[in-house]
Every structure is written in C-alpha cells, then in structure tokens.
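Holo prediction. Input below; ligand is zinc ion.
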Amino acid sequence: MNTPMVEPVQTLDWSTWERALVVVAHPDDPEYGLSAAVREWTDAGVEVSYLLLTHGEAGIQGMNPAEVGRLRAEEQRRACACVGVTDLIILEHPDSMLVYNLELRRDIARVIRQRRPDVVIVPNFGVEAYGGLNQADHRVAGLATIDGTRDAANPWAQRELLDDEGLDPWSASQLLIAGVDNPTHVVGVSEHAVECGVESLRAHEQYLEALPDHPRPEVFIPELLRQGAGLIEDSSSDFAMTFRVFDV
Ligand SMILES: [Zn+2]
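Structure of the complex:
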C-alpha cells in the first residue's frame, strides 16, 4: 500500500521581497488572516498592492448595489489603512457574477505588468474552503489569477498590453495561495500584526452588521492564526498564516 507523501510545512522566506500583489474578488476577502501577514510585510517595508476584481456591490441584502459598491470600497480603504496598504485598485467586474474569461485574465495581467510584484497572492479558491462550499467569485478569481500571472509573463499572451499599452512582460517569482488546509509554508505574524488584521476585518463595519451570524473577528482570526503557528514545531511566533507556495 502506498502511503501518501506529506509535505513538511516550512517557514516562508520573504526577506527578498520588495513588492507583493494580493488579488481578490471582493472587499473583505483579504481580511481572513491574510491581512495580518500583510501587516507583517508592510512593517518590514514591502509594498503591498491590493487588486479587487469587483466592488462587492451584491454583498448586502436589502441595500442598493450602487450604494453598496461605494460603501464597500470605502470600508476596504479603511481596512487597507489598518495594514499599511496604500495602493488599492478596484475593478468593475460584476459581483456574484464574476466570469472566467480572457478579459478578466488580461485585467489581472495588466496590473501585474504595471506593479511588477515579486509575488502574487490569492486567497483559497478551492471548491471546498472556509468550512463549506466556496463562493463562485472566489473560485473564478483564483483561477484567473493563476492564468493572468502567467499571461503577464508571456510576451505573446494578451498582446494588446504590450502593443497598445506599452506594458512589458513581467514574471512574478511565486504565486501564493492563502488560507489553505494543506499548506506548504507559514508566515509568522506578531501580536501587533494580528491586532491589525482583526481591525482590518472590523473596518468592513456595515458589511458585517448585515451578517449577524458572522464570527467575531477578534475571536476567530487569532484562533485561525494560532492554528497556523501550531503547524511548525519550532515556530518562533504564536501566530502564523498558512500558504501554498508555487513557483511561477
Ligand atoms: Zn468574497
């Protein structure tokens, strides 16, 4: 009988990073533990950009989507401020109806060629994630980010980016998937970064208000990050975010 190989989880070496790009479907998507790692990186001088593919306008029941889109963009700006992110890009793709296509890949590739990040980071986009079935937009955003990252590196892909917009190809070194059940790496985060991560989720105030059953950020985020740190025996940190790391 074959025993499945279990990969040992390692501490991620991010000491050479200068720039990172986080790609998500909605406002609040970076805030489920990832933003605590973002605080750790920005504190060390890494420039972290966020690319949101939608405004999350379908996210609050009983409220006009146009109003919700504006509100959630504003809440995301406040969340970004909690973790040292000043570069926030929000695209106009339709929330809850995000479609995987070449246009979406091109829009992601464009931002990668503009920002030239060392790493591209996307939250868990598995069919099963976060204790249940994942949301359609999350699945689409993840796949389009993988392919958009490769499009960004390929001079023969998405030709209008080079020919019409003058954007040279750029290859990120790694692609990270955050918050997975089968991580290859963890990033240790300080207690301060955990607190900032909690604040970043709380910044989505009206969004959370409309979700009375949502777990309390100050309870579940530290717990989630404590579990991450528990994956490494000699972890120097009590808290850590989990990632699967791939070379691009
Ligand atoms: Zn989402």
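The pocket of zinc ion is lined by residues 25-26, 29, 135, 138 (CB under 6 Å). That is the main takeaway for now.
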